[in-house]
Amino acid sequence: MHSRVKNAGRYGWALTCGVCALALSIAAYADSSVPGNGGEAPQAAGFANVLDAWLGFPDLADSDTPYTYLRADQTADNTRVKRQDLVRELDDLRWRLEAGGYAAFVQALDQWKTQLAAIRVFREPGDWSPAWLMANPHRNPPISRVAAIGACDAPDWVEIWSGQGIERTPWHTDLMLSDLAASGVMDVDGVRVVSVVAPDGRVRRLGQAADNYSDSELLPGTRVVVPLPLKGEAFPWIRDTIAQVLAHAPSGQDCTEMRFAQTGAPQ
User: Fold this and answer.
1) What is the pLDDT along the chain (267 residues), one digit of tens a residue?
2) Same domain, yes or no, for 57 and 99?
3) Which DSSP string corresponds to the chain?
4) What is the pLDDT of residue 261?
5) 2 in any annotated domain
6) CB distance 71 to 256 below 8 Å
7) Edge to edge, what strands does the sheet with 203-207 contain?
8) Same domain, residue pair 231 and 266
9) Which of 26, 109, 144, 226 has the fewest Cβ atoms within 10 Å of its own Cβ atom?
10) Do 41 and 111 share a structural domain?
11) CATH number for 218
12) Distance between CA atoms of 4 and 51, rounded to whole angstroms?
């Protein structure tokens, strides 16, 4: 891939998905054992589609919509390629920052790369909860197209990726993007746009300058990607590509998965 860093010019720089209407259907699978803290869900009968599989998922009533997810092999493969492209760009940028004396930004890049490399599970962004699939039956994928479904516990943090590295700050009710800047955990001086990754993987670009300013309420598990406050076409691309990779990573914690073979039976 042609490096954006080399062409960058001068571096001057909760709704809950435990729906009561599903309770009777879940009860039909009550003979399935419930796993402990995270891991893989137990085996059960074969499933025709994703909604059918959700009805056999343990502890579904305790799951929260933004923290349930679906995995597909092709999406995971594509995201790994995107991550490889991103790491190459970061490697190219790193030595230039080091040569320019930007030691703090070099440390931040190293932290970014470590965290990106640690992502093992790539999901399909979007709402794949039982409630959404019941309301949108024509978007209910057959199990033959799906690698796994999973559910995570809701986290108690929001995460900021910036020139200061990666920092998690406690989430609280009515937390706004502007609160992160006001508290000092997010520095937006010289930054025009940040990318905000919602827990369900939806990505928005929100302006932070006077002429494009936009604020937003943040849910637990939201990730905010702040570009390095330097000039060059590489930095918006890096911001957006980090956000795209993070959009494919489940945002919850202590996740449980049910994996499927091509026949529709859990692995």
Assistant:
1) 445 544 443 333 333 333 333 333 333 332 322 233 355 554 444 899 999 999 999 878 778 889 999 999 999 999 999 999 999 999 999 999 999 999 999 999 999 999 999 999 999 999 999 999 999 999 999 999 999 999 999 999 999 999 999 999 999 999 999 999 999 999 999 999 999 999 999 999 999 999 999 999 999 999 999 999 999 999 999 999 999 999 999 999 999 999 997 555 565
2) no
3) ---TTTTS-------B---GGGHHHHHTTTTSPPPSSSEEPPP-S--SBHHHHHTTSTTGGG-BGGGEEEE-HHHHHHHHHHHHHHHHHHHHHHHHHHHTT-HHHHHHHHHHHHHHHT-------S---HHHHHH-GGG--BGGG-SEEEEEEPPSEEEEEETTEEEEEE--TT-BHHHHHHHTSS--TT--EEEEE-TTS-EEEEE-STTTB---B--TT-EEE---SS-STHHHHHHHHHHHHHHTS--SEEEEEEEB-TTS-B-
4) 74
5) no
6) no
7) 165-170, 157-162, 223-225, 193-197, 203-207
8) no
9) 144
10) no
11) 3.10.560.10
12) 42
pTM value? 0.83
Question: What does the alpha-carbon distance between residue 264 and residue 142 come to, in Å, rounded to a whole number?
Answer: 8
CA distances from 19 to 65, 80, 89, 129, 131 (A): 10, 34, 44, 10, 7
- Asked if 37 and 133 sit in the same domain, the reply is yes
| Residues 53, 159 within the same domain | no
**Total domains present in the chain:** 2
Full domain range(s) for residue 139: 15-72+124-154+253-267
